[in-house]
Design goal:
It contains ten helices and 16 strands. It starts with 13 loop residues before the first strand and ends with a strand. The protein is globular, with a radius of gyration of 20 Å. The longest helix has 20 residues. Helix 1 links the parallel strand 1 and strand 2. The protein is α/β, with parallel strands linked by helices and 366 residues long.
Length: 366
């Protein structure tokens, strides 16, 4: 869909294609937060005069967490003449979109997908705002070590994202004498997971699974097992970030550390954006909404300074210097990363406060 507030029919607008999971099985709340941030940024850009006097316009496509649907959307958006591509939350979907955008020559700024191998080969057409998985999850591993966990269990579903996460944790924790036991959630019930945790004397269980299934029933099962009263549940992928988590789990969803990409204090722009997002969303905005806003802020700057021809924005990434909601955004070639990367956005390990599930506590920062 094209958002009504930004629709023009005279062909004078500068169009950006926006990808987000807006229906199941996509993580709809994440998609809504991402899109809200992008829409707010478009409004701010247009209030400030647009791109060289032309209004910015979002052309939104729902990926529904489907890589093939994302590829088809990229082809459609390219045919519609968008100047650049933005967004997406799910890593596997973003990887498919990035590959197709690169193939058709469409600049793409990925908002939220962290998988290191966003493209198979290095490319100048794709850049990323969120940190690579290897960076964020190593910070999470540092948190685990600092908290004294030496026997970690990982409940994982089959997926390149979850498999990569488990490998990263094992590679980082093993040299410190920590054992990492993988539990295959395609074969185990929540009750069977509890038995495995007891058998392995695990001190921490990490949820490398989808939300709400099977994450929610697994958390409930562990919380209700008296044998596991002392175990820590963790969710490095950030499932507890969104309001739906607290609504479904209540007190059971607290004290579950997860990664989020916010600084301790937002920039002055970030503080203003937070207030406006809170009004739009009717709730505290997640870091994903700020990623959406920053994505459009960067693309607007790129289109102003380097022009709207598709070949030009791809040349702009190494010259970007934009004050975003979470800090100054600049791109570089990070080791082992095939795309232009903001190295690095702020990273925190936080949890929901048991005394107030609506409040997030900062446990560790990297």
């Amino acid at each position: 869909m094209i958002t009504a507030a930004q629709t023009r029919t005279d062909g004078s607008s500068v169009r950006i294609g926006a990808l987000a999971p807006l229906t199941r099985p996509g993580w709809v709340e994440a998609g809504q937060q991402l899109l809200s941030g992008m829409e707010l940024a478009v409004r701010d850009v247009n209030d400030a005069g647009g791109v060289d006097g032309r209004p910015l316009e979002l052309v939104v496509r729902d990926t529904a967490a489907d890589p093939q649907r994302a590829v088809a959307a990229v082809d459609e958006l390219a045919q519609l003449g968008v100047a650049a591509l933005a967004g997406e939350y799910h890593s596997v979907v973003a990887r498919a979109a990035a590959a197709r955008a690169d193939a058709v020559g469409l600049p793409y700024l990925c908002s939220s997908a962290v998988l290191d191998a966003l493209t198979e080969e290095p490319t100048d057409r794709v850049a990323r705002l969120c940190p690579a998985q290897s960076h964020g999850w190593r910070i999470y591993a540092d948190f685990l070590l600092g908290a004294g966990h030496s026997r970690v269990a990982v409940a994982a579903q089959p997926s390149v994202y979850w498999t990569t996460g488990a490998r990263l944790l094992r590679e980082y924790l093993a040299p410190h004498g920590c054992t990492v036991t993988e539990l295959d959630m395609s074969e185990l019930t929540p009750a069977a997971v509890c038995d495995e945790l007891v058998a392995h004397r695990a001190t921490a269980l990490l949820l490398l699974v989808g939300h709400p299934e099977p994450a929610v029933p697994l958390v409930r099962s562990v919380r209700r097992d008296p044998r596991l009263a002392e175990i820590m549940i963790g969710a490095p992928a950030g499932q507890p970030e969104f309001a739906e988590w607290a609504e479904l789990l209540g007190d059971d969803g607290t004290a579950i550390p997860f990664l989020r990409y916010l600084p301790e204090h937002l920039t002055s722009l970030g503080a203003r954006v937070e207030k406006m997002l809170r009004e739009r969303l009717g709730q505290t905005p997640s870091f994903v909404a700020f990623e959406g806003y920053d994505t459009i802020a960067v693309l607007a700057d790129v289109l102003r300074t380097h022009g709207t021809d598709r070949a030009r924005p791809a040349e702009a990434w190494p010259h970007v210097a934009v004050d975003g909601t979470r800090g100054r955004i600049e791109f570089s070639r990070a080791a082992g990363i095939s795309v232009w990367q903001w190295a690095w956005p702020p990273v925190q390990v936080v949890d929901r406060d048991p005394a107030n599930p609506g409040r997030l506590r900062i446990l560790h920062a990297g």
